[in-house]
Amino acid sequence: MGSDGFESKKLGGPASGGVARDPAMEAVTGLGDAANLIEISGVIKWFDASKGYGFIVPDNGWPDVLLHVTVLRRDGYQTAYEGARLVVECVQRAKGYQAFRILSMDESTAIHPAQMLPPRTHVTVTPTSGLERAQVKWFNRLRGFGFLTCGDGTPDIFVHMETLRRFGMTELRPGQYVLVRFGPGSKGMMAAEIHPETGSPGLSSH
To answer: Closest Cα to residue 203, out of 174, 182, 180?
Structure first.
């Protein structure tokens, strides 16, 4: 795999001796004592501590890597902010790659919650788009906002809880499809109008 910048490693563990199990190993269930570990760098796509997981977008364009809260906490981090850069060792599972160990994390590029819109402050957005079909990347009711995407290569669309309420919606689910009009705002592209899509496809894994 040298051509894509990934670095394969071997995880060697003691075969016996009563060594306590690594909590991260518990999270990566079914892993043997000698599993192939791959070192990658990337950015946090989103992380929800209440759900116990999030996803990393690898720099080389590979599929998203699952990041479990057990791995995060074991390696000394309480949470992972969107946009933070990190280097991890990951393992390939049946459903994709999963982080096993965090080697480093740089939060200088992260978007901290304090930088987001206050949960009860509504910002008027003038739409510059038509009514477009978009997919929910993530949405957090407690924080009162989330992000939509119209596909690869398009900017994320910030959606505020108050915008949902104005159009009779109460929450969004990751993978759900909606119809949205959006325009430029203080946080980049922002939803001005949002409606559920009738007969939307099933939810994606993330």
So the answer is: 174
Type and span of the H or E element at 70:
helix 69-74
CA-based end-to-end distance of the chain: 26
The DSSP secondary-structure symbol of 27 reads: H
State pTM to two decimals: 0.46
Phi/psi-derived region of residue 163, left when phi > 0, alpha when psi is between -120 and 50, beta in every other case = alpha
**Residues with Cβ within 8 Å of residue 139, at least 6 apart in sequence:** 145, 146, 147, 159, 171, 172, 173, 174
What are the structural domains, with CATH classification, of the chain?
2-109 (2.40.50.140), 118-196 (2.40.50.140)
Which amino acid appears at position 91 of this protein? V
Express each pLDDT in 31-48 by its tens digit. 443 368 999 999 998 888
